[in-house]
Structure formats: C-alpha cells, structure tokens
Amino acid sequence: MKNQTNYQTLGEMLRQLREENNLMQREVGAVIEVDGALISKVENNEKPINREHLKKLSAFFEIDEDMLQLLWLADKIRNIIKDEPLGLKALNYTHTKLNNEH
Fold first, then answer.
1. pLDDT (mean) for 49-67
2. What does the buried/exposed string (b/e) look like for 75-86 if buried means 16 or more CB atoms within 10 Å of the residue's CB?
3. How is residue 6 annotated by DSSP?
4. How many other CB atoms are found less than 10 A from the CB of residue 53?
C-alpha cells in the first residue's frame, strides 16, 4: 500500500483496508475487541476509534502506524473545528504559531 493518504479519513482508510483484505466488519472488530457495529460507525466517520487501537490495526494490516496516527489526529482536529465559523482561520493561525516555535 502506498504511504499516501489522498486526504482520506481514518474511517475511509480502514474501510479500504478491510475491503482489500475481503474482511467483514466483525472480523476487524475482533482484532481490537469491539463489535462490528462500532467498525461500521468508524468507517462512516460517525464515531472515532480509540488511539490505543491503532497499534493493533497497524500490525494486523501491516501498515505504518504513523499513517494511522496522522489520520486519527487529523480527524480529531477536523471534528473540533468543522462547525466553527473561525475554525479554518484558527487552524492556520495554529499552524503558523507551531512553525514559529520550531
């Protein structure tokens, strides 16, 4: 698998990985000890997955854990700012501030 995310959400990536491996949602859920209904919600971007699950999913699908962490964090940030009128400006401000700190 490429190391490029193509601006996918974590849920979209997990669905893609699951489908590429011909797995059912309950089978992926078993890997992280949750039910298939939660995997469905994660894939549909309705519910976030716990950060602790990323290591197991990374090992199971044999993909870079950092890529899953990146998508997980991006989803978290997006969910916080998506309905905020100044969300994008705040994100850009934070980006600039972080760059100046490093």
1. 96
2. beeeeeeeeeee
3. T
4. 18
- The answer to whether the beta carbons of residues 28 and 21 sit under 8 Å apart is no
pTM of the model: 0.84
Question: In a 3-state reduction of DSSP, which class is residue 93?
Answer: helix
Close Cβ partners of 62 (under 8 Å, ≥ 6 residues apart): none
Cβ pair 35, 26 in contact under 8 A: yes
**Is residue 3 predicted with pLDDT exceeding 90?**
no
Residue 4 pLDDT: 47
Q: What is the DSSP string of 61-75?
A: HT--HHHHHHHHHHH
Q: Measure the CA–CA gap between 66 and 72, rounded to whole angstroms.
A: 10
Neighbours of 94 (CB within 10 A): 12
Enter the tokens of residue 62: 């044999």
